[in-house]
């Protein structure tokens, strides 16, 4: 994997992580109810779920490259089309709905980790997204180190972001800032997704 490809992957994973949504709401809820420690555990366990999705996706794509190269090629083009569709959708978006988080009493740290893990593990959108995203980067003969780099990139960026949320951005100011910049995040995400999809045509 080239540096340019890796930076593209980092950008998309990062923008995906910071977009307001259910995962952010869960991390904030446990941070506000149980403190920063609970929030960090929630974020780390969420990243573990993301890592499992990434691992399963990369493993499946690697098998396709070797055993069914034609099907992999079709999947690559389909993934590019899906990313392009997501990019257009993001560019046309009016921004995410305002995110609201309310406290409901302190929960255990085990429950915090469980909620973080489950919100990512049972998110079918992650499976589709990683399949479309990673199909643009997995190549024939890619060494295991390159595959592990992709998996680690997705999981580490996710975990770092939600840990940062729990550490320093857990106050009400975070919600107003993210909600206020939701449209900008969508625009930037849309442009990057479209550029990534165009790679298939230019390669």
- Based on secondary structure, the structural category is mainly alpha
Global shape: globular
**Ranges with pLDDT <50 over ≥5 residues?**
none
Content of β-strand: under 5%
How many structurally independent domains? 1
Written as H for each helix and E for each strand, in order along the chain, the element string is HHHHHHHHH
Q: What separation lies between the terminal Cα atoms?
A: 14 Å
Main pleated-sheet profile: none
Helix content: over 70%
By DSSP (H or I, 4+ residues per run), the number of helices equals 9
Q: What is the number of strand segments?
A: 0
Provide the residue-averaged pLDDT.
81
Radius of gyration: 17 Å
Structure notes:
The protein has 203 residues and is mainly alpha-helical. It has 9 helices and no strands. It has one domain (20-95, 106-202). It is 80% helix and 0% strand. Helix 3 crosses helix 4 (69-91).
Write a concise keyword list for the protein shown above.
203 residues, 0% strand, mainly alpha
Q: Layout of SSEs?
A:
Blueprint lengths: L2 H16 L3 H13 L1 H32 L1 H23 L17 H13 L2 H11 L9 H25 L3 H9 L1 H21 L1
Helix pairs in contact: 1-7, 1-9, 2-3, 2-5, 3-4, 3-5, 3-6, 3-7, 4-6, 4-9
Brief overview:
Keywords: Cell membrane, Membrane, Transmembrane, Transmembrane helix. GO terms for molecular function: amino acid transmembrane transporter activity. 80% of the residues lie in helices and 0% in strands.
